[in-house]
């Protein structure tokens, strides 16, 4: 292939310089994409491709007008591409081009929604080179920045579970782009996890950016020399490396938003309730399991009136707090707002006019804010005193922590900036900063003079036709301006003979002639000069204003956050009032008592039956049983959500509640979505269980829904049993465990801190009514068949199920029936032996001997569990009672067993052992 030259050659060599996926190169008034990039972009964005000939070859080409690039960039970036932009600039001999910025998913300012958009860097120190399973303990450093708001957080993870903890942190932020440090780049396991669980693009930034010294320098430069010490991360090298890499990356991509990153925050996990990604999903905090926003907790409780308020409320739900003090503060503010209806409405109405100051700060810093944006800054800053007054006027609010929220921003600086902007900018500025019309009269004397002259010149032009008409007597005479001819005088054909000599003809049209005169040409030059000067001056003044705003990014951010907090608190109050929620009492004990509680989301769409929950040290582990569809999951999620809402500072859906603060909420519930992802549900189930058993503490809340369901009954029941014991004895977390394994209810009878509760149902004349109330004690029946009936399963199947169930209860056997309506039994499945027995004539005697039940009374009525055996075995706690009650055993056999038990294997010589075994065999043979 011939080497491309000319414009395509230039494109291809610029492309070589960058590791971006796509290059957009300015060619005059367009940004062009060539070759493969053209095809890709055309495909993604529905652009037309044409062919560009270049020295005998031809290349695909696609382009967008200069001013339209941003939406195309946004679309590409949203699809995960990194796009380099090369701009054209003038040189002595023509022009040249160079890459001025790289737009990436994590550094792009334009967003189509209000959500935070995170760029993250992850590094690992120590832990060997061999990936996440390497030897020695690793420390992970994570930095996340939201360039659209200037938020910047760092954290470190170390210890035995550092890898999974680091991944969990990443999932929490759901970053748009991740910069893996040099050690992580070769760790495919880690990267695969990130790919699987987030939509992040992985960008390989230069290794030097992660170097400790360099990173530390950058962090100091960005946030101030003392910051590392004051934030307490001076010794956290991994965190510092990650932070430095983020700063370097943001800088090098050329987005120009560094100035908006004003504050480094150390993300101290111990301040927040641990909520892993699975739990966030299970509890449907921000989207439902089906991935819909509507129907999520956030969607339900969100009544915010600003995008910043919504963003903050969402963040609160995703990161509930552990600090009693902080929660008391939020609760008091919500309570005050809940009690002050009028003031609350006014406050929300006022806040409704606020723009997103945090985002505007980033736009100002990057230089992309226009005059309308600065007006928005001014109008929003000006709301602060208005909101402050509203709060001050209402005693109940003024004495609440809301007052402090509004004290936080530098009100004097905000007022001064607002006043300056107001003085400088016209009321309703245009959306472009190059065409003038931005600056108020009276702001700058020099500008006023130029504007005065400019307007006088325009007036002169406006009056020119009348003057000329009077002078020449021509009636059809007008003055106009266009791009090619500039200003001209136009005279109708019929009167051209009256045109004076100084009129110089420049163009002939069908019905008229165009002329210029010296005076007009001179005025035109003056107007052009004044126009240019005016636009230039206005732009200069505007740029200064924008810089002034950027320099005050912190004031904008603080004010934005204060207003957002008022909005979020008011939203919580609105929801509490509208739904009759109550203020929960917070405590440090291990309790959770809820009187007449409801599920915050389900109560919106259903006539919800409230129910009670009572947990404390004596009722630390609740085994929740009840028919399918009776409301077990709802009840448990409700417990988790009430706890979570309490730790957001919100009121809760209950008549009253006392909530012992937790350090984490862990859930393991249905795994539909994992099924869809093609991961084995049972594997996922066990991974989640494992995570809970490792992470939960006695201060946690654990919700387990049907653990063990994904495997064979005996397997499942054993795991459920052992996990329950472990939680009760070793973890001691507050736990709700819904199960269809009836056997687990025995735990409630045997272990003091375990209690049974069940969701009540009523059966009358074969019909089941779900009462939805929760009562103490285990459920007494399985209603599965009734539910099948209700669901419309054909009559014969339902009837036959009842028969099978009856037979199971009586004989622990199911006979397999042939197709001729079941008169002949072809085989019998004996549950105790797990074998089929071919049995003509239907004598299914196989189960009889072993049917003797340990008599726990706990049922064994469910088809899935074939109950009584497992109960007998497990409840007895071991092998001694494996053969029930002993009555079936011969005394001779007992003797052998006794001897066997008493024998000390370590003390007995092998030969003697052999002899004994032979004796026993002989004795048993005689049996
Ligand atoms: P389970 O986990 O026992 O199978 P679910 O918790 O999934 O049952 O609840 C089944 C249905 O009952 C759901 O549609 C739920 O909305 C509804 N439901 C649950 N609890 C209540 C309640 N207390 N009041 C009204 N409807 C409820």
Essential attributes:
about 950 residues; alpha/beta; MutS, DNA mismatch repair protein, domain I; Nucleotidyltransferase, domain 5; MutS, DNA mismatch repair protein, Chain A, domain 3; 7-stranded mixed sheet; 30 strands; elongated; binds adenosine-5'-diphosphate
Draw up the topology in text.
Blueprint: H1 6-17, E1 22-27, E2 30-34, H2 35-45, E3 50-54, E4 57-65, H3 69-78, E5 83-91, E6 94-103, E7 119-126, E8 138-146, E9 151-157, H4 162-173, E10 177-180, H5 182-185, H6 188-197, E11 201-202, H7 212-223, H8 227-231, H9 237-253, E12 265-266, E13 274-275, H10 277-282, H11 297-301, H12 307-318, H13 324-339, H14 341-351, H15 357-366, H16 371-381, H17 383-393, H18 395-398, H19 402-407, H20 411-424, H21 445-472, E14 477-482, E15 486-492, E16 504-508, E17 512-516, H22 518-551, H23 553-579, E18 585-587, E19 592-597, H24 602-605, E20 611-615, E21 621-625, H25 632-646, E22 656-660, E23 664-668, H26 672-676, H27 681-695, E24 701-705, H28 713-731, E25 734-738, H29 745-750, E26 754-764, E27 767-776, H30 784-790, H31 795-811, E28 813-817, E29 825-830, E30 835-838, H32 868-875, H33 891-902, H34 910-926
Parallel strand pairs: 1-5, 7-10, 9-12, 10-11, 13-23, 18-22, 21-25, 21-26, 23-24, 24-25
Antiparallel strand pairs: 1-2, 2-4, 3-4, 5-6, 7-8, 8-9, 14-15, 15-17, 16-17, 19-20, 19-22, 26-27, 28-29, 29-30
Helix pairs in contact: 4-6, 7-9, 12-23, 13-23, 14-17, 14-23, 15-16, 15-22, 15-23, 16-20, 21-22, 30-31
């Amino acid at each position: 292939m011939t080497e491309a030259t000319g414009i395509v050659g230039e494109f291809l060599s610029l492309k070589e310089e960058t590791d971006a996926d796509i290059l957009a190169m300015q060619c005059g008034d367009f940004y062009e994409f060539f070759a493969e990039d053209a095809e890709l972009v055309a495909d993604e964005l529905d652009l037309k491709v044409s062919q560009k000939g270049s020295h005998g070859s031809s290349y695909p080409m696609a382009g967008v007008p200069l001013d339209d690039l941003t939406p195309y960039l946004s679309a590409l970036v949203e699809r995960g591409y990194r796009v380099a932009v090369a701009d054209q600039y003038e040189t002595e001999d023509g022009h040249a081009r160079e890459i001025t910025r790289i737009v990436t998913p994590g550094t792009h300012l334009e967003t189509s929604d209000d959500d935070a958009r995170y760029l993250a860097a992850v590094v690992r120190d120590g832990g060997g080179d061999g990936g996440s399973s390497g030897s020695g303990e690793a420390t992970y450093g994570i930095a996340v920045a939201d360039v659209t708001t200037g938020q910047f957080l760092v954290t470190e993870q170390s210890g035995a579970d550092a890898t999974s903890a680091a991944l969990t942190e990443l999932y929490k932020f759901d970053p748009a782009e991740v910069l893996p440090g040099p050690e992580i780049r070769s760790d495919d396991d880690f990267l695969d996890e990130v790919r699987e669980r987030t939509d992040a693009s992985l960008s390989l930034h230069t290794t030097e950016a992660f170097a400790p010294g360099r990173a530390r320098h950058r962090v100091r430069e960005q946030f101030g020399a003392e910051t590392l010490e004051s934030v307490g991360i001076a010794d956290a090298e991994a965190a510092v490396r990650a932070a430095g890499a983020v700063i370097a990356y943001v800088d090098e991509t050329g987005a120009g938003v560094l100035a908006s990153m004003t504050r480094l925050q150390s993300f101290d996990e111990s301040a927040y309730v641990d909520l892993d990604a699975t739990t966030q999903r299970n509890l449907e905090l921000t989207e439902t399991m089906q991935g819909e926003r509507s129907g999520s907790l956030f969607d339900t409780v969100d009544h915010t009136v600003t995008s910043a308020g919504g963003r903050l409320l969402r963040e609160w739900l995703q990161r509930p707090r552990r600090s009693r003090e902080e929660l008391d503060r939020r609760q008091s503010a919500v309570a005050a707002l809940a009690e002050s209806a009028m003031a609350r409405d006014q406050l929300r109405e006022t806040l409704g006019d606020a723009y997103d100051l945090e985002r505007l700060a980033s736009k100002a810093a990057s230089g992309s804010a226009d005059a309308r944006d600065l007006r928005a800054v001014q109008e929003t800053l000006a709301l602060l005193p208005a909101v402050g007054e509203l709060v001050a006027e209402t005693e109940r609010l003024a004495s609440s922590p809301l007052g402090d929220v509004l004290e936080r921003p530098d009100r004097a600086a905000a007022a001064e900036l607002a006043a300056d902007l107001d003085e400088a900018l016209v009321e309703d500025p245009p959306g472009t900063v190059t065409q003038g019309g931005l600056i108020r009269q009276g702001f700058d004397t020099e500008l006023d003079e130029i504007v005065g002259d400019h307007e006088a010149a325009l007036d002169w032009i406006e009056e020119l036709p009348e003057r000329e008409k009077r002078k020449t007597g021509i009636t059809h005479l007008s003055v106009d301006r266009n791009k090619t001819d500039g200003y001209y005088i136009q005279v109708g054909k019929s009167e051209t003979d009256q045109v004076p000599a100084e009129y110089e003809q420049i163009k002939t049209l069908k019905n008229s002639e165009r002329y210029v005169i010296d005076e007009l040409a001179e005025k035109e030059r003056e107007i052009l000069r004044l126009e240019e000067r005016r636009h230039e001056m206005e732009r200069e003044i505007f740029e200064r204003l924008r810089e002034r705003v950027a320099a005050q990014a912190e004031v904008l951010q603080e004010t934005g956050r204060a207003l957002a907090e008022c909005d979020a608190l008011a939203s919580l109050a609105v929801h509490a009032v509208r739904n009759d929620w109550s203020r929960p009492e917070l405590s440090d004990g291990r309790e959770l008592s809820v009187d007449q509680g409801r599920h915050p989301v389900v109560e919106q769409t259903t006539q919800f039956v409230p129910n009670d929950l009572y947990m404390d040290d004596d009722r630390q582990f609740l085994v929740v049983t009840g028919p399918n569809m009776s409301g077990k999951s709802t009840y448990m999620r409700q417990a988790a959500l009430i706890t979570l809402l309490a730790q957001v500072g919100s009121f809760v859906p209950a008549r009253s509640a006392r909530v012992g603060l937790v350090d984490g909420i862990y859930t393991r519930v249905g795994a539909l979505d994992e099924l869809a992802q093609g991961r084995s549900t049972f594997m996922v189930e066990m991974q989640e269980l494992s995570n809970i058993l490792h992470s939960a503490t006695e201060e946690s809340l654990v919700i387990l829904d049907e653990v063990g369901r994904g495997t064979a009954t005996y397997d499942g029941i054993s795991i459920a049993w052992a996990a329950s014991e472990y939680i009760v004895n070793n973890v001691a977390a507050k736990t709700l465990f819904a199960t269809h394994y009836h056997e687990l209810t025995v735990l409630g009878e045997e272990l003091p801190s375990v209690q049974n509760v069940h969701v009540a149902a009523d059966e009358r004349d074969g019909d089941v009514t779900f009462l939805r109330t929760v009562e103490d004690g285990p459920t007494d029946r399985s209603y599965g068949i009734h539910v099948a009936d209700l669901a419309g399963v054909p009559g014969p199947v339902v009837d036959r199920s009842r028969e099978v169930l009856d037979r199971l209860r009586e004989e622990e056997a199911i006979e397999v029936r042939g197709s001729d309506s079941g008169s002949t039994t072809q085989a019998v499945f004996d549950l105790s032996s797990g074998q089929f027995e071919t049995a003509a004539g239907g004598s299914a005697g196989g189960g009889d001997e072993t049917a003797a039940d340990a008599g726990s009374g706990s049922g064994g009525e469910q088809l899935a569990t074939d109950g009584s055996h497992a109960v007998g075995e497990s409840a007895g706690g071991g092998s001694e009672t494996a053969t029930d009650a002993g009555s079936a055993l011969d005394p001779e056999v007992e003797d052998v067993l006794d001897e066997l038990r008493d024998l000390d294997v370590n003390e007995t010589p092998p030969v003697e052992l052999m002899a004994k075994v032979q004796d026993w065999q002989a004795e048993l043979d005689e049996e």
